[in-house]
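Lecture 7 notes: from sequence to structure.

We start with a single chain of 383 residues. Read the sequence below before looking at the structure.
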Amino acid sequence: MKTITAFLTICFICFSQNSEAIPAFARKYDMSCQTCHSPAPKLKAYGEEFAGNGFRLADKENPRFFRETGDDQLQLMRELPLALRVEGYARWQPQTNHRADMQAPYLLKLLSGGQIAKDVSYYFYFFFGERGSVAGLEDAFVMFNNVWGSDADVYIGQFQVSDPLFKRELRLTLEDYQIYKTAPGNSALDLTYDRGIMVTYSLPTNTDLTVELLNGSGIGAADAMRNFDTDLYKNLFVRASQDVTEGIRIGGFAYLGNEEQLSRTNAVWIAGPDLSIAFEPIELNIQYVERRDDNPSFLAVKRTVETRGSMAEAVYAPDGDKSTWYGAMVYNWAEINDQGYKYNTITGHYTYMLARNLRLIGEYTYDIERKGNKFTAGFIGAF
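Now the structure, written as tokens:
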């Protein structure tokens, strides 16, 4: 026990460095990260509204944010908004790989976003390094806000299919939402990154609708003919969510698609409900997913494969967005009936805010299937 305590203490000391800088949007508006996050990168309702408004504050836009070019048709930001996010960890997995591992830097990403024309914005981030390799672009899209004066927004580019559900990039835990990444056989379809078009629309009844038209081939490189899509198909994702009352929201989604490999096809449907309950100081998010593939191994004789799983996440903020520490728990379950695949973990997470844009974390994951432990300590900073 003393060895573990000393190990974690050393990790915290090595990774604890004060930072006085602030990320791009906070820098632009001279506001604290707390305005949109609790804690970063997790978004508050105000942060969701800011992002949905094209990364601008409608009541705070000022001509000084843009250069005077003498051309009314040119809206040029005075400064290019840039920010960096860096993460580093130390991990100990005694019952799986029997070793400790220093993982700093674990990732370093460059982020940028802002307004490029009236009601037109962009956002992207580039991985200088992720788990020791250059991952390149992940999120990268242009957003058209309030199209034709309506409450419709249109995103064109690269994004996560599951973004309208629960955003993987904004979670507090290093442990992922496993069911969004799970796919049987050789299928390339899942609920993570893809290229396409996403349309969102909000009704006066506090109902949110989302439709995505997707390539269904992930975010790999273009082929010799400069095509990103690997087959003739386009896939469809639809979602609806409804505020039941203040603090309670229910939703559901369906994904319908086809993919082709080796001149054979696989028809896929994925669907499931979700629930969010938020009453300070606790927020609870639950997702359930069912999936059917009729030929995920692309065999001559088709065979249906069933995939199912769920994610449950609880976040505790003792003093709301003014909290100096946060607690979180995540339960992951996923299984594929025809492959003997099972993923079953429970994670406990602790965040201490060394600064608004720098947090120290400690995390423990128990792998129920493999009866293994993972201990993690580290830092997450943005500036």
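The radius of gyration is 22 Å. Keep this in mind for problem set 3.
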